[in-house]
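Weekly structure sync, notes
Attendees: PL (lead), two postdocs, one rotation student
Agenda item 3: pending single-chain targets
PL asked that the sequence for the first pending target be pasted directly into the notes so everyone works from the same version. It is reproduced below exactly as submitted, 680 residues in total.
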Amino acid sequence: MKELSWEMLRPAIADIGSLDDEKKVTFASFQKRAQSAVQELVYTEMPNPVMLLLASPDTDAEQCVKDLLTKCAGQKHQIYDIVYAENLADELSPMWLHIKSGTTQEFFSLVQKLMKKAKFKLDQEEILLKILKKQDNDPKLEEYLTDLCNYIMQDRVKTDQVILNLMVQHLPDRPPLLFGHDLTWKNLFGCVNYLTENGTTYSSHELLEPGLLRSADGGYLVLRISELVHSPALWFKLRHILESGLAGWENPNESVNSIIPFFAPEPTPVNVKLILTGSYIDVASLYSIDPECGTAFYLRADLMNCFPLKDNTHDLALYLRDRCRLMGLLPPDASAVTVLIERACRLAENQTKFALSEQELCNIMREASGRGLRKDLKAFTAAEVRETLDARMFRANTALEESGDMFRDKQIILKTKGEVVGQINGLSVISTFGDDFEYGEPTRITATIHSGPEGGISDVEHKADLAGEIHTKAMMIINGYLTHKFGNDYQLPVSANLVFEQSYNEIDGDSASLTGLCAILSALSEKPIKQQFALTGSLDQLGNVQPVGGINEKIEGFFRVCKIQGLTGEQGVIIPESNVTSLVLDEEVVNAVREGKFHIYPVSIIDEAVEILTGVRALLKEEGVRNKDDSKGGKSAKSQDAACEENIYDIISDKLYEIDTRDDPVSLWDRIGQFFQRGD
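Predicted structure, written out during the meeting:
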């Protein structure tokens, strides 16, 4: 089989372009889907629309929303400040007034003049008309100011009485954009505060707190779904307010409400465009507490993290440069940017795509910049980035070193030389500290065969309750393949035991299905497997090899063990052909492949893997396998065609037929037939 050359083990990064380009690139610059949704949100006339913005947990969704809204050229619409006024007919029910943003200071000045004229019973019509003209002849305001003039002329104003209270003020022509954190009923919906004097508890419109929802009136409010899920009452109240368009002042947790039950400010109209951010898990949690929440969403968009490298190489380079500027770091030079792009490809496990993991990349650049400053550099280079990556690996690789010691001291038994029947090296990935650090570690898998009428595979991990559901499915697929390949005409007369040796924790996934099946085929055929190889791959029932995750860590893990036990120049790994574009390997592994000390073989069907592992020819899928009838009369494949090269599937078929017919009694009719054939 053809092995991969070293040039195929890392992404080919094209010219990154000039880092002096004046173009500004942010994370939002890559978000075409979100840009489309935000543009629609800006233009929609729908009352209180809700937009769902899905993002991975390490994405700075809030900054992205800011940048997306900055890019949108929205329609100009009037924004209003919120004033709560003394209800001249009922002081326990303050009322709201809308004042055009940017005119509030002038409004209060004119109202003062209006009240002075009313106090001295002078003509107020000119000032009143001037106020109303600037407020677009708002009928509610006109009615209130008229009543206020009459109220003053009747000398009903009390000493130090505050008639109007500016509760929410906005900048003119700039819709507010607010972000909610540590949500409570009070900071989201506002509250009524109370004072106590001489044993009497009271409140007024001066003591009203608006909350985020009223403060964002006429603009945008961004909330995290996880916080709403944590307090479901907030979500249900928020949804009710958005649907009704009115925000009241009740607070179910406020005991003072029972003391002053008659103080009831007028509910405020709500005009807010709500953006909910969170992960798919957060959304699933929201659906679990409110199965009908989907009806509240007007728009939905994803914040993507993975993008094609070819079309975005220059923009990615500028993004990395601009992030350094934003964080006050040294600028990266072209070599540093190239290494960072390679790292982004590694995060995506793809040579043609990159993962824009802001947290990961920014942390690397912070440390690389610090190293550059300590060297008195004006820009950090590839050397500082590689030093940073090595240091980050060193700080987190305690478990990796302990694993290496176990292999070095032969506490974990694994061969990288020689040949063994029914024993194979699988590849796995170990996660530590959550998902922050992962490393590859080879696993010895063994298979044994015994005759028995039940047939099939006995998965020891499953029986010991150490296997997850996907692993169990993989074992069933292996059984399906064997039945399809060898059991078309009769039930398999043997059973197989499959064990992941020295594995004491729960395992899951289907990436060992190729490995397990190769071990079983070796045990069935009694053909040894070359221990210098390790392999990984998912499998379907027809023998097609499917891609797996963690391919880079798996390859590097086996290479590490081969180094510990001594590189022979024959060791290597077998991987799915569909994983070739996933390779972004460590430079040490690439150099070993370049020097012929390590080998990587891609396969697309199990037959190719079997031939590499055993050195014995395997039938291609379309050739099929001889069934029971091909061996009647005791003729083997070799006796039928001496020129036919030995293949592993015919060997297995012959053996299975031999076991199946070993104890069959010869019937009377068979003996009579044999008698006449001999001519006796």
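Discussion points:
- The two ends are 54 Å apart (CA to CA).
- Residues 309-326 form the longest helix (18 residues).
Action: rotation student to compare against the earlier draft before next sync.
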